[in-house]
Amino acid sequence: MRSSVIFTVFTVLSVTLTGAAPINRRALTLLAYNDMSISSGVGGNAEAEAKAVWEAGLDLSNLAAISDADLDILKVERSNAENAETEAFNPAIDTASGADADALQVGKIKNKVLKLTGLAQIRQIGIAKKEAAGQTVSASDKAALDDSLTKLAKNIATDKKNAGKASKAVDFVGQTSV
């Protein structure tokens, strides 16, 4: 009798606790920049490579359901890609010459595709979350997304022109926590 009462109380508590508040599930683990970089190899396939990085571990069929924790991780990773461009690629290109400089430039374009794919995805998630919450999506939010997509298309086109050309990555860690 006593064990059945304890079991009943435990069951009621566990059902109450699990149903009391939505769970903010985390699907992602923060990657250091070097672990997500697509800049090595050859040019020409950055679009697919970037999509593979940004889509890994996420259910993109419902952007509004992506957790805030995962969105925070995506924002840090995108920031790392941007910082790799300004803090590692640009100085490396400035000091390189010849084939090395050319390969770094191809790698930088691939990194721009990575960065802008992430930025567009983050902006799409933000818009989806606002719409799901019944909030108005501002014209500036829509314009920012359009700007990201325009820049992304330009850099994808440049990468495709670099198809088969050597591409060189830079060593950059970036922020390692959210």
TrEMBL record:
<keyword id="KW-0732">Signal</keyword>
<protein>
    <recommendedName>
        <fullName>Small secreted protein</fullName>
    </recommendedName>
</protein>
<feature type="signal peptide">
    <location>
        <begin position="1"/>
        <end position="20"/>
    </location>
</feature>
